[in-house]
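Exam revision sheet. Question 4 asks you to relate a sequence to its structure. Input first:
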Amino acid sequence: MALAGCGGEPWEREAAIGEAALGHAAALCAERPMRVAGAGSREAADWIAGRLPREGTAVEAFAGADGRELANVWHCRETRPVAVLVSHFDTKAGIAGFVGANDGASTTGLLIALANEDRLPVAYLFTDGEECRVAYAEGDGLEGAWHAARSGRVPKGTPVIVLDMLGDAGFTPMLAANGSAWLNGILRRAGRETGVPLGDAGEIVDDHVPFVAEGYRAADVIDFEYGPGNGWWHTAADTPDKLSAGSLARAAALVRRAIELLEKERE
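Answer key, structure tokens:
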């Protein structure tokens, strides 16, 4: 269902971004359903790069811990970005029919939409290898984030906001407790001011963890209630029909207000 172009809620102004984000997410699932790190993820990275403005876009190949070729996508047209927005695009291996519509594609679509249809003073990072092969540990999972956090690509002092699983029609966004307290505070204020309240997710293993470990102020906004009993997560049920343009519009409003608040902090 399309959103109204205006209304009583601040996030309703983001209707066009929400619709565009949904379109990009659905297209990614249809055109690049196989995005397992090292086995289809490079093609997906090139696909993402092809949907971004050419200026400021780069695909960065790097070797995974086991020698697989992985690839992040970076997009930035700012000399001094206010923040870095992060979404992983890879999918979990070994799950028949899994296209990762919410888990990976939803926020990837959101970042593509923001990069194309807005001019937020931010950088965009699309990470490969977020999903672990066996269990999260050194060299297994979060590989694109570890590479970016250690590469020097992201200037020290730049806040990092990780977005994950935010397309669910049953929208219940939360903040990971193991993010930066300062940045979590900024995001909670942005949520209150845009009508997108943020719950508490507890400690989450996600792409913010490497950035925090490397001294960045990083936060993770995630909706970890996906389907009854979180039963659609990492299953073939994670399909585009479960996604909502309204949820993605809410996420966009949250991000926009957080960036505005971060700009004021920097002044």
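Marking note for examiners. The two ends are 40 Å apart (CA to CA).
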